[in-house]
Amino acid sequence: MHFHFTGIIIAVCTFLVIGLCHPLVIKMEYYTGTKYWWTFFIVGLLSIFAALLIEDVIVSSVLGVVGASLLWGIGELFAQKKRVEKGWFPMNPKRKEEYDKGKKVKK
User: Fold this and answer.
1) d(CA 79, CA 23)
2) What is the pLDDT of residue 105?
3) What is the chain's percent helix, strand, coil content, to nearest 5?
4) Which of 25, 50, 63, 92 has a CA that sits 20 to 30 A from residue 56's CA?
5) Exposed (0-12), middle (13-18) or buried (19+): which is 70, by Cβ within 10 Å?
6) What is the mean pLDDT of residues 65-78?
């Protein structure tokens, strides 16, 4: 019997990439806010483009997953800001003014 591990390797790598992107989004929003969302965009596009050029199935698949996860992370970064504003996650006190901008002041 001969086993083929390609699918399992891609699945584990996908699991790890998604698992790493979640805390990356949380930390990035905490320390820098949403102003560097474009880094997710550029690195995501570059990863997807590289996946198109690489012949190795595993490497190409993982790069595609990284690219898609980073592009998805852009939306999550802005959603994370809203979660912080709702009090679901801690707010960085050094950036408190960024959260107060969008709130209407009651008179």
Assistant:
1) 14
2) 44
3) 75, 0, 25
4) 25
5) buried
6) 98
Q: What letter does residue 104 receive in the DSSP assignment?
A: P
Give residue 103's pLDDT.
57
18 vs 69: CA distance, rounded Å: 7
pTM: 0.86
User: What's the rounded Cα separation, in Å, for the pair 51 and 48?
Assistant: 5
Query: How far is the C-alpha of 71 from the C-alpha of 51, rounded, in Å?
Result: 14
C-alpha to C-alpha distance for 82 and 89, rounded to whole angstroms: 9
End-to-end C-alpha distance for the chain, whole angstroms:
75
pLDDT at 96 over 90: no
pLDDT at 35 over 50: yes
Q: Which of 21, 14, 15 is nearest to 62 (CA)?
A: 14
Q: Could you tell me which of 10, 4, 8 has the C-alpha nearest to residue 62?
A: 10
